[in-house]
Design a protein that fits this description.
The protein has six helices and no strands. It has helices at about 5-20, 30-50, 55, 60-75, 80-85, 90-110.
Length: about 110
């Protein structure tokens, strides 16, 4: 699932377009910026199902829930300041979101 981290970095750049017009840069994402990031991350995540053998075996409903969790997890961890920073620095936040959401996926494979 590491390929999701690279995809999410690109999505953060997309969300930064919205972020530049927002005050309170240290605050977590809200409103349109958050919605856009969650939806973009979920969409990218869902398209990645089957790109690697382990994810191909995951039930579609479980994968959708994982993608929803991951999208919200990324949005929970990223602030407006983060969107203006170097995208490479966001990797730990993507990995934390992934780690928090992967449990149900692993259970479905057992």
């Amino acid at each position: 699932m590491r390929h999701l981290t690279k995809t999410s970095a690109g999505l953060v750049i997309l969300a930064s377009v919205i972020a530049t017009a927002k005050d309170g840069l240290a605050q977590q994402l809200t409103g349109a910026a958050r919605s856009m990031l969650v939806e973009s991350t979920m969409s990218s995540c869902e398209r990645s199902k089957g790109a690697h053998a382990p994810t191909a075996a995951v039930q579609a409903s479980v994968w959708t829930e994982y993608c929803r969790c991951y999208g919200n997890g990324v949005a929970d961890r990223i602030s407006m300041n983060d969107l203006k920073a170097d995208p490479a620095g966001l990797t730990p936040k993507f990995q934390a979101a992934e780690k928090a959401c992967v449990g149900p996926v692993l259970k479905s494979l057992q």
